Amino acid sequence: MPVTVRVPTQLRSLTGGVGEVAVEASTAGEALRALDALHPGLAERLFEESGSLRRFVNVFVADEDIRFGAGLETPVAEGETVSIVPAVAGGA
Q1: Which are the contacts of 21, defined by CB distance < 8 A and separation ≥ 6?
Q2: What does the pLDDT look like over 46-86, one tens digit per residue?
Q3: Cα–Cα distance between 8 and 61 in angstroms, integer?
Q4: Which residues fall within 8 angstroms of residue 22, CB to CB, at 6 or more apart?
Q5: At residue 89, does pLDDT exceed 80?
Q6: Contact between 64 and 83 (Cβ < 8 Å)
Q7: C-beta separation of 74 from 66 below 8 A
Q8: Which of 21, 27, 81, 90 is 20 to 30 A distant from 60 in Cα terms?
């Protein structure tokens, strides 16, 4: 089923500058892997070698952080949006 993946500015060099990509997926993990299939190189920025999300990568499905749900197995309904949000740190 088609879903939209929102790509943050920091990763858009890998998508040719595109901020939203439509993919076929039924889970958050499938959406991210489909995104990498269309735009190779994203997976190494998003995933650890073990296959888990990198610590500084947050993923939301319909505004819900997948880390507090089923993780990469979080279901994604047709038409929903999966957002990749890099963690922000720093400050004084």
Answers
A1: 4, 5, 7, 15, 35, 38, 39
A2: 999 999 999 999 999 999 999 999 999 999 999 999 999 98
A3: 15
A4: 2, 3, 4, 5
A5: no
A6: no
A7: yes
A8: 90
Q: What is the pLDDT of residues 11-36, one digit of tens each?
A: 999 999 999 999 999 999 999 999 99
- Report CA-CA distances (Å) from 91 to 5, 31, 70, 88: 29, 32, 31, 10
Token duo for residue 51:
């296959």
Sorted by where each starts, the structural domains of the chain and their CATH numbers stand as: 2-86 (3.10.20.30)
**Closest to 57 in 3D by CA, of 49, 23, 65:** 65
Alpha carbon 51 to its chain centroid, in Å, reads: 13
